[in-house]
């Protein structure tokens, strides 16, 4: 027999007994001359109503509040529960000291005020200790909480998108990342799910991400850790990453635009690889000359397209007739777009360089 059924039966019996006793009290208000049998029927009816109400309401009075309280307690850090309990005890102790003088006040005030003061001081003590727990413990020299130890570490959280992208391995090898890179287990699970996808493109992207992680673990450029840290109360991977970054006080390495914006709105620092790629591109000003190989036609008439070593597109006016040739161009303007930077130029003196 399940716990819910047992609780329902117990509440049904208690409610039936309560209803029977209430019916006895109400029997005094029945009209004079009511027969004893009628009174018993009334008592039985009220007892049955009480039993039915107890059976139906038992889960809402016991199991559901218990489960909600248990979920809430799982979400509250252990040190918060401890400090709240200490604050409650301190508040009740102070209230106990004040109970005797307050009870000597005349009339109803002396009877009610000690209880009110106990409730207020208990709540005030618990709230104060929870809100200022770290400051209080730090003042006493006792604060060595787990999340503080983590914050002292120089760590970076990796997002699924940046692992699949692959450039993080090259950035790490170049020495631009010296912090410990952490891949939470839920990110690894998402990567595994992508690698097992029925879609060929997604499957290849997921497998590439797993290969990149394996490669980075073997490379000694910077330590990489697979962590079991989780945020069970949040289901979405991006939400878990943002919450974990807040707890660890560390940045997130990503190239996901949506995650970037969500994290910034919640005060989490983001290291975006796309922004880094744009930042390290060569600065070109109008009037400068460049050596460019024209490799394809442009969208407009007579335009030719070339690329710098960093991938920046160069649109050359009248460059179509110099296809597959290297020419010297003069930069006329630089355009920054959402997709990246574009350079426009024209051939210097119309001369081919090769």
What's the CATH topology label of the largest domain? Answer: Rossmann fold
Whole-number tally of structural domains: 4
Report the total helices. 14
Strand content: 15-25%
Instruction: Look at the helices and sheets and give the structural class.
Output: alpha/beta
Largest beta-sheet details:
6 strands, mixed
Shape: elongated
- Please write the CATH class name of the largest domain: Alpha Beta
| Counted beta strands | 11
CATH superfamily of the largest domain: 5'-nuclease
Which stretches of 5+ consecutive residues score pLDDT under 50? 143-152
What is the residue-averaged pLDDT? 82
- The proportion of residues forming helix, as a percent range, comes to 55-70%
Q: What does the radius of gyration come to? A: 36 Å
Write the H/E string, N to C.
Answer: HHHHHHHEHHEHHEHEHEHEEEEEE
Would you kindly provide a written description of the structure presented here, covering whatever features stand out?
The protein is an alpha/beta fold and 354 residues long. The protein has four domains: 3-66, no CATH class; 76-139, no CATH class; 150-278, Rossmann fold (3-Layer(aba) Sandwich); 289-352, Beta Barrel (OB fold (Dihydrolipoamide Acetyltransferase, E2P)), CATH 2.40.50. The protein is 56% helix and 16% strand. The chain contains 14 helices and eleven strands. The protein has a six-stranded mixed β-sheet, with no helix packed on it. A five-stranded parallel β-sheet has the order 3-2-1-4-5, with helices on both faces. α1 runs antiparallel to α2, α4 (78-103) packs antiparallel against α5 (107-131) and α10 (185-195) packs across α11 (200-218). The longest helix has 26 residues, at 36-61.
